[in-house]
């Protein structure tokens, strides 16, 4: 009797899907035990990895960083395929925050003596929430930060209830506790900015950076307890010179032509909830899963690995689209609903010819003649959107953007990050609206002649309140822009996941549970493992990252390999 090979279909050709395909194919290719297929709804591979070009530079529209090189599988692959060096300029981010200048709205340059204490406070509060700053490690100066953070956590927890404490409420309580404990001189020369408002603005700038790291639109929705479960690899965070797509292409390169099918969007997944349907006359019945595609075609499978984003899954259960038939169990849908999934977009801007390329003409108006630096790494401290003193020309969607900087030193291509409501607004704006809005914002901040770090002034704040004429004179212009649109792309509907208040790491584990579970080593017991789930939102400690997606793809491939090893079809 001829035994039909099990067919495994992977939905999605991103990091998780291609890692699973790579593992399944390379582990069994010599034995030819599986029919393997990857179906991708879009016209390219990579998913939320999308390397592109802008202004002659290689850029990343999606995933950008290797988050820690110590032990990272992504870094290991990048080393093996020699992707960490390139002759073409790339988004290497070498103009880092060590060289940043911090300017308050209105063009007021803030001295490190006012910026650094708030930066240190914010970083130590985050380290406390992540479990890195504890009694054992808090020695010397850190001991006072540990006590402050512990008090802030206690007060914030009592206010919100132990099970509903957010990172946002903890951070704000930390700032309040700090300000109560410190008596410091008032600032001069900062127009309407008081010391307290400046500290709150600097703190808010760091909160906005944290929003881009987590994808949470509001840190009040980011769960405090889960923060200590999140794991980072040690070592520096770097970008990939030859592009993140080189990692994807390496994973796909071992797969035979035709195994990856592009333009195949799945609209419905039918699976068998009733165990008895998987058995006929004591033997396995026909393949238990049926995939329906947007072109009307149908494909049957024994196992399907679903790697679509959490945003797509949220949309499916919210709209009751019938993507899964029968519907997913409540344990799965409740986890999908509770977890957070945000939108993070990148905006690339090309400085106009007057300002762009190498040593910008713009630079000569603002930098000492002996400086060889171009546009600075700019940290922006905004007034509150409700403040009467805010500059009306700055659009609302710019006000929670923390930074603007060249993608490498002296590049004429600048980058800024947008999150949540502002990120979605950016997607619908016309290029001209974006150019005008960013130009007005930057001109408001870079109004004065001494903006570079290392200014000879020792004042806490340098500025000139009568700068409207100067602002118009030095207006920064951009010739073109390029933005990502992850929020409205129907294949993603967002960027990456976070643990929201009301959810927990248990929900990430629930996301990873297959349907039905593999409860037996009998090959025909119940057609187990019909639907498996992979992707960054299914990893408890590395969610939101490409390496989390990589690990999840390996996990599900190994789950199937172990299953067939157990039932005797596959044996190493």
UniProtKB/TrEMBL annotation:
SUPFAM superfamilies for this protein: FAD-linked reductases, C-terminal domain, FAD/NAD(P)-binding domain
Pfam families: Amino_oxidase
GO cellular component, one term: cytoplasm
Annotated Gene3D superfamilies: 3.90.660.10, FAD/NAD(P)-binding domain
Single GO term (MF): polyamine oxidase activity
Keyword Flavoprotein annotated: yes
Domain of life: Eukaryota
Sequence similarity: Belongs to the flavin monoamine oxidase family.
Protein name, as recorded: Amine oxidase domain-containing protein
Source organism per UniProt: Vigna mungo (Black gram)
């Amino acid at each position: 009797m001829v035994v039909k090979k099990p067919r495994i279909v992977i939905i999605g050709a991103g990091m998780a899907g291609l890692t699973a395909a790579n593992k399944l194919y390379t582990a069994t290719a010599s034995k030819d035990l599986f029919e393997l297929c990857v179906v991708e709804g879009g016209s390219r591979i990579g998913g939320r990895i999308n390397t592109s070009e802008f202004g002659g530079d290689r850029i990343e529209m999606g995933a950008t960083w290797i988050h820690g090189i110590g032990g990272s599988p992504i870094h290991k692959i990048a080393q093996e395929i020699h992707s960490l060096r390139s002759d073409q300029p790339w988004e290497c981010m070498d103009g880092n925050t060590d060289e940043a200048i911090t300017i308050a709205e209105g063009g007021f340059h803030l001295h490190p003596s006012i910026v650094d204490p708030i930066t240190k406070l914010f970083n130590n509060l985050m380290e406390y929430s992540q479990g890195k700053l504890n009694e054992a490690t808090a020695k010397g100066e850190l001991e006072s930060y540990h006590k402050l953070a512990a008090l802030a956590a206690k007060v914030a927890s009592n206010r919100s209830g132990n099970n509903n404490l957010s990172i946002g409420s903890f951070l704000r309580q930390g700032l309040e506790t700090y300000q109560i404990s410190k008596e410091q001189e008032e600032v001069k020369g900062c127009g309407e900015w008081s010391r307290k408002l400046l500290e709150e603005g600097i703190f808010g700038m760091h909160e906005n950076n944290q929003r881009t790291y987590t994808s949470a639109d509001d840190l009040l929705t980011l769960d405090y307890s889960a923060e200590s479960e999140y794991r980072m690899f040690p070592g520096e965070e770097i970008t990939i010179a030859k592009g993140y797509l080189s990692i994807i292409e390496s994973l796909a390169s071992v797969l035979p032509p035709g195994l990856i099918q592009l333009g195949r969007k799945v609209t419905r997944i039918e699976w068998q909830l009733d165990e008895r349907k998987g058995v006929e006359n004591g033997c396995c019945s026909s393949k238990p899963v049926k995939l329906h595609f947007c072109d009307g075609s149908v494909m049957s499978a024994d196992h399907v690995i679903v790697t679509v984003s959490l945003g797509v899954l949220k949309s499916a259960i919210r709209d009751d689209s019938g993507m899964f038939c029968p519907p997913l169990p409540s344990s799965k849908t409740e986890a999908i609903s509770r977890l957070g999934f945000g939108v993070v977009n990148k905006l690339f801007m090309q400085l106009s010819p007057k300002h762009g390329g190498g040593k910008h003409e713009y630079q000569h108006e603002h930098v000492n003649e002996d400086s060889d630096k171009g546009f600075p790494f700019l940290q922006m401290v905004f007034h509150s959107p409700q403040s009467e003193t805010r500059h009306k020309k700055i659009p609302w969607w710019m006000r929670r953007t923390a930074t603007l900087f060249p993608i490498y030193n002296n590049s004429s291509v600048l980058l800024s990050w947008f999150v949540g409501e502002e990120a979605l607004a950016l997607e619908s704006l016309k290029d001209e609206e974006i150019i005008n809005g960013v130009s007005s914002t930057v001109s408001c901040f870079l109004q004065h002649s001494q903006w570079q770090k290392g200014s000879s002034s020792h004042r806490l704040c340098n500025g000139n309140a009568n700068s409207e004429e100067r602002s118009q004179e030095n207006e920064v212009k951009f010739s073109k822009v390029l933005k990502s649109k992850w929020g409205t792309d129907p294949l993603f509907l967002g960027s990456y996941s976070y643990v929201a208040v009301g959810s927990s790491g248990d929900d990430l584990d629930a996301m990873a549970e297959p349907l039905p579970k593999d409860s037996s080593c009998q090959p025909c017991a119940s057609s187990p493992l019909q639907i498996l789930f992979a992707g960054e939102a299914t990893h408890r400690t590395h969610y939101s990252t490409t390496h989390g997606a990589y690990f999840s793809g390996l996990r599900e491939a190994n789950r199937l390999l172990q299953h067939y090893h157990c039932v005797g079809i596959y044996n190493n």
